[in-house]
Design goal:
The protein has 19 helices and 16 strands. It has 445 residues and is of the alpha/beta class. It folds into 3 domains: 122 residues, Response regulator (Rossmann fold), CATH 3.40.50.2300; 175 residues, P-loop containing nucleotide triphosphate hydrolases (Rossmann fold, 3-Layer(aba) Sandwich); 131 residues, Orthogonal Bundle (Helicase, Ruva Protein, domain 3), CATH 1.10.8. Strand 1, helix 1 and strand 2 form a beta-alpha-beta unit. Helix 2 runs parallel beside helix 3, helix 13 runs parallel beside helix 15 and helix 17 packs across helix 18. The structure holds adenosine-5'-triphosphate (ATP) and magnesium ion.
């Protein structure tokens, strides 16, 4: 996509010359003859850069700059003037102008400056994307029939911009599927932003998603850009969408329909071009029945539903996944692992309630704790051993394996006692809720 530039200049000859020159550089160029029109255009379209005269009737260049920085902070603004002085330049740069140029100027110099700003803009967008997805781009392993169907479906949806709802039990690989959709789509080199709706306190979620204006609420000391704006032209993953509060669901529905957002505390709307992916381990249909999830939003989200099957329904993948993870963990430590026969059997017999995450975590633990590269049955955690192991309790078990077994058992008991209430269970165990949450993920409880 070529960059879009708005030229604001009241002098006709100057404007026409600049617009014509920029057109020839293959940029998409719009023009306005005054600040009022320019502002109206900024509200309607998304500009990468604005080149504006300073002295104009009505709204002058500096006022336009302040408004633009409020409306679309990532738009770069270059101000130009025939009456320049150092103070003027400093004041404009302080207000957020990216550059300040004196008339008359050389047109090639102008396009060089514009190109440099656009390059920086693109690098910034890529950095945001990288920060957000570091480590998320991993291969999807598995060639069982259900996985092949899933991979086919993924390659079909990458061709579209439709909203996708990814459902599946915890640990099945929903995030991996979402990342694959983005990175195989035409938006691959644009931002990929992920937000976990369950991990952010209800009161802050709206501002995380849509941003807020300075002073919108106590503590909002400066204007902040939300994830939707960061994801502009790219993809956003609304992870754990089932945990989104009802009030916000209405707002999300509007964003999906109108393609525009409103920062918390703002009067104005901002256009965004974002592909939305959602994922949840909850049964959303059931949530709809219970009145916890809006029916209209549910139907709007699941334009294309994808269900990631649990590992117990694709046992054929266990061997391939095991090899993949052991290779990875082994190469980190310079070791090549192999598995004894009964270990392979125990792994394929186990139902993996925590799915691929559980298998991965088990193998990570084993790769650290096993005394030799050949992994034995007794190196596995108790829940895998118990179905297979002979009752010879004198068999040597690494202390850390025994501790992990005991820890897991304690957590199971606490959760049972508190009927699954994590806050109470953490209190019982004498650990923080966060610590409990991490351990539950680790042991796939
Ligand atoms: N097919 C797969 N190939 C390789 N790794 C996988 C696969 N499926 C899952 N994983 C790994 O398992 C872990 C869990 O996957 P992921 O986070 O995508 O699950 P999830 O479905 O989003 O779970 P939750 O609902 O708990 O968030 C990750 O470390 C991921 O890399
Ligand atoms: Mg997830």
């Amino acid at each position: 996509m070529s960059s879009r530039i708005l030229v604001v200049e009241d002098e006709d000859i100057m404007r026409i010359t600049v617009v014509d020159h920029l057109h020839r550089q293959n940029w998409q160029v719009d023009e306005a003859t005054n600040g009022v029109d320019a502002l109206a255009m900024v509200r309607k379209n998304r500009y990468d850069l604005i080149l504006s005269d300073i002295r104009m009737p009505g709204i002058d260049g500096e006022t336009l700059l302040s408004e633009v920085k409020q409306l679309t902070p990532r738009t770069e603004v270059i101000l130009m003037t025939a009456h320049g002085n150092t103070e003027g330049a400093v004041s404009c740069l302080k207000k957020g102008a990216a550059d300040y140029i004196l008339k008359p100027f050389d047109l090639d110099d102008l396009s060089f400056r514009i190109q440099r700003l656009l390059d920086i803009q693109e690098i910034k967008a890529r950095c945001v994307s990288l920060e957000n997805c570091c480590g998320q781009r991993q291969p999807i392993i598995g060639s069982s029939a259900p996985m092949q169907r899933l991979l086919n479906l993924i390659s079909q949806v990458t061709q579209t911009d439709s909203t996708v709802l990814i459902q599946g039990e915890s640990g099945t690989g929903k995030e991996l599927v979402a990342a694959a959709i983005h990175y195989e789509s035409r938006r691959a080199d644009k931002p990929y932003i992920r937000i976990n709706c369950a991990a952010i306190p209800t009161g802050l979620l709206e501002s995380e998603l849509f941003g807020h204006e300075k002073g919108a609420f106590t503590g909002a000391e400066k204007t902040s850009i939300g994830k939707f704006e960061l994801a502009d032209q790219g993809t956003i993953l609304l992870d754990e969408i089932g945990d989104m509060p009802l009030g916000l669901q209405v707002k999300l529905l509007r964003v999906l329909q109108e393609h525009e957002i409103e920062r918390v505390g703002a009067q104005k709307t901002i256009k965004v071009d974002v592909r939305v992916l959602c994922s949840t381990a909850k049964n959303l249909e059931e949530e709809v029945r219970q009145g916890k999830f809006r029916e209209d939003l549910y139907y709007r989200l699941q334009v294309i539903p994808i269900v990631v099957p649990p590992l117990r329904d694709r046992k054929a993948d266990i061997t391939e996944l095991t090899e993949h993870f052991l290779n990875n963990f082994g190469s980190e430590r310079g070791l090549t692992f192999s598995l004894s026969e009964d270990t392979v059997q125990a792994l394929s017999d186990y139902p993996f309630p925590g799915n691929v995450r559980e298998l991965k975590n088990i193998l990570e633990r084993v790769s650290v704790l096993a005394p030799a590269p050949q992994i034995q049955l007794w190196d596995l955690p108790i829940e895998l051993r118990s179905q297979k192991e002979d009752t010879d309790s004198s068999k040597a078990v690494k202390l850390a394996v025994a501790v992990a077994d005991a820890e897991q058992q304690c957590i199971r008991n606490a959760l049972k006692t508190t009927a699954g209430n994590k806050t109470e269970a953490a209190e019982l165990l004498g650990i923080s809720r966060k610590n409990l949450w991490e351990k539950m993920k680790l042991y796939a409880l």
